[in-house]
Specification:
By secondary structure, the chain is an alpha+beta fold. 43% of the residues lie in helices and 15% in strands.
């Protein structure tokens, strides 16, 4: 039997969701990025298993699955940086480190949340496009314009289906999307969605000519409009898939209508999954399945590792972690455990969403969506990362903004005055007992700058200059122009290079 300790990389989505809810910086960044929902806390309560499973599959198809989960874990429980010997610097370095973590998590969570949020509205509007035939339209005043009447129809029927069952699909968003859709036709504008279906030419011409639509034509327009809403919610997922180099089908272009609006969800038996894993292993095929069951989403995948010369299977369970193995029987045993006992037939996954169509087979254990690598991929995807240089840049920026001062070894005072991010140059003021100096440093590591000042300040009084330049690139010294000949230059060892004029 497998438990959490048997997973190669333990992971718990609850830790990620708690972090997002409690971290205002991440919440604000997500609030600016996510277009489909405003209540991020509500998404956190509902879970993001589908978004996590989908993004893991995307990275694993390129051999980055384990790295992507490790990154999330490392951001949630970061390894401490090497401590600065200077208390003030340490404080600001940790602050900058947390900002970098928030930036990476916000980037990752934008993809995860977008995919999670957008999945149900796609099905919701597919259902609405069917249901529109049975909608009762309000009486139409004789002189009312088409668009005003369409908006009235939407208002009249907005309570027909509970949007709260679909991640709180916001009616105002729906209304705006359909309004924009009508205006796009009326003004003869091109749709922002490629390969969009064509609206009936009679309706199209009537809208452009501002001729009144009949009741049947209004319903037909609404059918088109609800399909347009599906595109609105699914397009961001399609863009993510295209950018990261995955697709539902390589038979059509990555942003074709069929790859934006994907309908192929298949119910499967355990034997079918086992057969699939054998096939992809025997043929060294890279493949990923989104495995959906009991209102939950997981990932089953396989790829041939050229370096290790072996086939690697992965099973990602967002509530427990990642299992990677070259033995597919371990994957099958884990699936058996997960789907055994209190398993409810797959259609329960859509109990609140009767508009999701399934082909139920027996004895089905769940349903799957196939994902594959794009054939036309031009560059390998990458994970957003945290690097030490970025942490140092932020640290110096904050030190200069707050005009932080500190005491050096001999009682001299050092103050951070300004920071130029374009050239990564920090300006400081050094106040000794006998003289004040202005220092400029292009070292990325602020700790190195301070150490060099400590190591060389005793010699400053031998020089006339009050301006001191500290540059980490010794070969650049002879090319520095515009400074007086008695300026002081310090190399990376703390040695003063310019000794032309002494005091």
């Amino acid at each position: 039997m497998f438990n959490t300790t048997n997973y190669s990389i333990p992971f718990h989505q609850s830790n990620l969701l708690s972090y997002v809810e409690e971290n205002k910086d991440v919440m604000n960044k997500l609030g600016n990025q996510l277009k489909s929902i405003t209540n991020i806390s509500e998404v956190c309560q509902g879970g993001t298993c589908y978004g996590l499973a989908h993004t893991f599959a995307a990275y694993e198809l390129h051999g980055l699955g384990a790295e992507s989960i490790n990154q999330l874990n490392n951001c949630l429980q970061p390894v401490s940086l090497t401590k600065s010997p200077y208390e003030q610097i340490e404080k600001y370095t940790q602050k900058s480190f947390k900002e970098c973590i928030s930036k990476v998590l916000a980037s990752r969570c934008t993809d995860i949340f977008n995919i999670q949020i957008n999945q149900m509205p796609q099905h919701f509007y597919k259902y609405m496009a069917v249901k529109v035939d049975s909608l009762k339209l309000p009486d139409k005043p004789q002189d009312i314009e088409n668009l005003e009447y369409i908006m009235r129809c939407l208002d009249n029927n907005k309570h027909e289906v509970k949007r709260s069952d679909s991640y709180n699909i916001e009616y105002e968003t729906e209304r705006k999307v359909i309004y924009d859709f009508y205006k796009t036709i009326e003004l003869g504008l091109e749709s922002s969605f490629p390969e969009i279906f064509k609206v009936d030419p009679i309706i199209y011409k009537k809208i452009q000519d501002k001729v009144s639509l009949t009741e049947s034509e209004i319903k037909l327009f609404l059918k088109y409009a609800y399909h347009y809403c599906r595109l609105h919610y699914s397009y961001e997922t399609a863009i993510f898939n295209s950018d990261i180099g995955i697709t539902y089908s390589n038979k059509v272009s990555s942003l074709s209508y069929n790859n934006i609006i994907y309908n192929k969800t298949l119910d499967v038996t355990l034997q079918q999954i086992e057969n699939h894993l054998s096939t992809i292993e025997d043929n060294k095929i890279t493949s990923a399945l989104l495995f959906l069951t009991n209102c939950h989403a997981m990932t089953i995948s396989g790829r041939y590792d050229e370096q290790k010369k072996q086939y690697i299977f992965s099973f990602f369970e967002p509530n427990k972690g990642l299992l990677q193995t070259n033995d597919k029987t371990q994957i099958i045993d884990l699936i058996k455990e997960i789907t055994a006992g209190n398993f409810i037939p797959p259609l329960t996954f859509t109990a609140n969403f009767p508009f999701i169509e399934r082909t139920l087979i027996s004895p089905a254990i769940g349903s799957v969506i196939y994902l594959e690598k794009r054939n036309e991929l031009s560059k390998k995807p990458y994970l957003p990362s945290i690097n030490k240089k970025e942490i140092q840049i932020l640290t110096k920026k904050h030190l200069a903004e707050d005009k932080v001062d500190m005491t050096l070894y001999n009682g001299a005072k050092l103050k951070f005055v300004d920071y130029d991010p374009k050239n990564d140059k920090i300006k400081l003021e050094l106040m000794t007992k006998t003289k004040n100096y202005t220092l400029y440093s292009e070292f990325n590591d602020v700790n190195t700058t301070i150490s060099l000042i400590n190591a060389s300040m005793d010699e400053y009084q031998k020089h006339k200059s009050k301006d001191i330049y500290i540059d980490g690139y010794a070969s650049n010294y002879i090319y520095i122009d515009g400074y007086a000949s008695n300026d002081i230059y310090i190399d990376k060892k703390g040695q003063i290079l310019n000794r032309l004029k002494t005091a």
